[in-house]
């Protein structure tokens, strides 16, 4: 499987999760997963959740990216940036919140994509960022 196929598969799982939230008010959390071949570890796993957060003194409906695991042979091949693009395009609530980024290079890459550091969170060694889609 190619990295772009992993991104498409994660995007399809994300859309199914969003649809279930909108139609049935189903569970607000989900692990999205692209399985590897039998016996292999997953190619990618993403933990997403719908939330409400106080951002800029207003409650925002958010899609949270809480955790992302990418198998080592798929790292640094555009899986994270491709999945973020899928989230940005598919998220019906407009705000994406990325929790506890531990890698400074990833935090910097998110800022280049227009994400803003959430100054209200204080987590030693990690950064939380968000992006509000213009209306």
Could you explain the architecture of this structure?
There is one protein chain. With 135 residues, the protein is of the alpha+beta class. The chain has one domain (3-132): Aminopeptidase (3-Layer(aba) Sandwich). The protein is 32% helix and 34% strand. It has helices at residues 3-24, 79-90, 104-112, and strands at 29-34, 44-55, 58-70, 95-101, 116-117, 127-132. Strand 2 and strand 3 (58-70) form a beta hairpin. The chain is globular and about 50 Å long. The N and C termini lie far apart (36 Å). The model has no long low-confidence stretch (mean pLDDT 87).
Number of domains: 1
Specify the CATH class.
Alpha Beta
How many helices does DSSP assign?
A: 3
Structural class: alpha+beta
The backbone outline, from C-alpha atoms, is globular
Q: Give average pLDDT, whole number.
A: 87
Percent in helix = 25-40%
Strand content: 25-35%
Query: So, the CATH homologous superfamily?
Result: Gcn5-related N-acetyltransferase (GNAT)
Task: Output the keywords.
alpha+beta, 3 helices, single chain, Aminopeptidase, 135 residues, 34% strand
Short description:
The chain is of the alpha+beta class and 135 residues long. The chain has helices at residues 3-24, 79-90, 104-112, and strands at 29-34, 44-55, 58-70, 95-101, 116-117, 127-132.
